[in-house]
Amino acid sequence: MTDLVREAGTRGAPASSLRDRERAALAGSGHLQVAIRRSTDNMDGRWRGLRESLPGAEELREAARSLRSAAITRLPELLGQLADNVEAAGGRVFFAADADEATGYITELAQRRGATRAVKAKSMVTEEIQLNARLAEVGVTAVETDLGEWAQQLDGEPPAHILGPALHKTQADWVRVLRPEGYEGGEDPDAMCAFARRTLRPRFLDADLGITGVNLAVASTGTLVMVTNEGNGRLTSGAPPVHVAVMGMERVVADWPEVDLLLALLGRAGSGVNFPTYVNCLTGPRRESELDGPEELHLVIVDNGRSKILGSPSQEALNCIRCGACLNACPVFRQIGGHAYGDVYSGPIGAVIVPLLSDGNHELSHASSLCGACWEACPVKIPLHELLLEGRAQHAGSERALWRAWARAWSSPRAFALTGAPAGLRPPQALVPPPFREWAKGRTLPRREGSTFRTRWARGEVLD
Amino acid sequence: MNRKAFLARLEARLADAAPPATAHPPAPAPDAVPRVRFPPDERALEVRFGEALTAIRGRLVPLDELLSALAQVRTAVVTTDALALPDHIERLPLDQAERADAGVTLARAACAATGTVLLAPSERETRLASLLPPLHVVAVPRDVLVETPGDVLRDLPRFFPDGLPSAFSLASGPSKSADIDAVVTYGVHGPLAVLAVIL
């Protein structure tokens, strides 16, 4: 993996341009594309199949869209209710305006507890706020426990996909990554899985802190719902003496029936299963009558730029349930992979929210062909293609000038006639003017059949 | 940032919201959240539960075959009296789940459509008994069988009449990952095998 691609995952405007990162991703042997396509084909295909077999799938998705939108417009009320109920159950709640506040709270907590060892269950938001680096500064080693995420951490790479962090890695890559940890077997997924179990199990049992994300937070009962297929969410939240749950502020839902609907869609769209393997529902820390569980539960609710999306024309992007279905369906993601996006959020949803969250990396809204496959795949039907277009409009710059010039030209009969002439010329690739050369690569320009409409009109052939 | 300032910022953004950048904004939310339906199936709940559990690599074992199914199990942590375990199995204290061959626990509910069981800690049951050992044996009383996970999630007071416990889990089959080269592997963190017995 080149350095250009490796640097991805850091926040703010990346040092390299999108074009450079795309070139880096496309420059390899083609293995990256083969690996991504196989994984995404598999996930996208399963979700398509389940969409067809689920009775009333379209109505369920429309309802989910409406319900998510309604919850977002009630955010202040629902977050207040959530915080009250988490506190009533014995948990503590911290509202963090940005990454610094969130990581500051967690590192202070770690220091107060004298923590040196943390385990984490996959959470995009903790990647977003760069929690592992902040914890390392105060002497806490954080181990990622999702199998794919662990491999990415060992390999010094950010996750490449929301649900398949290591989907670009071959079995040979896995052996290379696990070898220094003591793995002695070959390219055998079962043996590597067993090795991960043996190696990570003591980490859970010795950890001072367990840090997880939150898939959905239920305002009515103060319950944090966390979904994993591996069980690392249950272990991370259940084994260490302190559990820190970090959630983007938009994860909140009003009540349990929404959980039923959204989990059914999340499992199908994300993992291709009717229901996720483990759905873990946490209401406060361990009770006095219970035999195990954490002594303390802390919920960190993170804004970090999300309030800029709230009330903006792109507000619906906050409806996202982070299933990864739009990544799997996207022809651009399937070609360049997650790292080329240069942020923790990739694919169509990343191309929409990254420029909005960070007020940088605006060029990401161009990492799309606007084909709408993302919208079709989205279980909560976010019109991602329209939001991508909105993103482009916000930062159009020279492109806007170009389209304006084009609009002016085609509004004038004389100028329009002029643009018709070169279309018949079929210039060789070398003569295509630079702005269009990239586009023309690999394409054969069409040959014009006969004369133009205007010529035929002038000759009186049209109304014959 | 304190809670008040945080929420006030959101209030302000919402009060001054721009029109959405879509030609087709979402419809108003329905009064009732629609139920997730599964294809109709007339067979008995326990038959369907067994079939769904098998499909996700779990196993439903008839009570009279339990002895042979547990022949290899030497040690277990046990949180329920509902199952009579074979005599050869040594019962370990609950805090020794890490070195037990099996964890034997009780399901508070079980979903026929998905092979899901509802697990929750109590005065007798730990969070880790069903999670740490390589084998999870779960006793499912016939009267807790329901159709779908929605029947549990929408009716929690039925299963937790004294209020929600600090943790409950809906578990569907063994621990599973497809992170290594898209090959499905079992038991990366939780149980490698799940065995259910209907009582």
UniProtKB/TrEMBL annotation, chain A:
Matching entries from InterPro entries are given as: 4Fe4S_Fe-S-bd, 4Fe4S_Fe_S_CS, FTHF_cligase-like_sf, Helical_ferredxn, LUD_dom, LutB/LldF, NagB/RpiA_transferase-like
**Domain of life here?**
Bacteria
- Do you know which Gene3D superfamilies this protein is assigned to? Alpha-helical ferredoxin, NagB/RpiA/CoA transferase-like
Q: Which SUPFAM superfamilies did the record assign?
A: 4Fe-4S ferredoxins, NagB/RpiA/CoA transferase-like
Q: Please provide the record's keywords in A-Z order.
A: 4Fe-4S, Electron transport, Iron, Iron-sulfur, Metal-binding, Repeat, Transport
Coiled-coil residues: none
Tell me, what's a Pfam family for it? Fer4_8
Span list, region Disordered: 1-20
Query: Boundaries of each 4Fe-4S ferredoxin-type domain copy?
Result: 311-341
Recorded hits in PROSITE patterns, A to Z, give: 4FE4S_FER_1, 4FE4S_FER_2
Please give the name of this protein. Lactate utilization protein
**Species name for this entry?**
Solirubrobacter deserti
UniProtKB/TrEMBL annotation, chain B:
Name the Pfam families for this protein.
LUD_dom (PF02589)
Boundaries of every LUD domain copy: 95-198
Protein name (record)? Lactate utilization protein
Source species: Solirubrobacter deserti
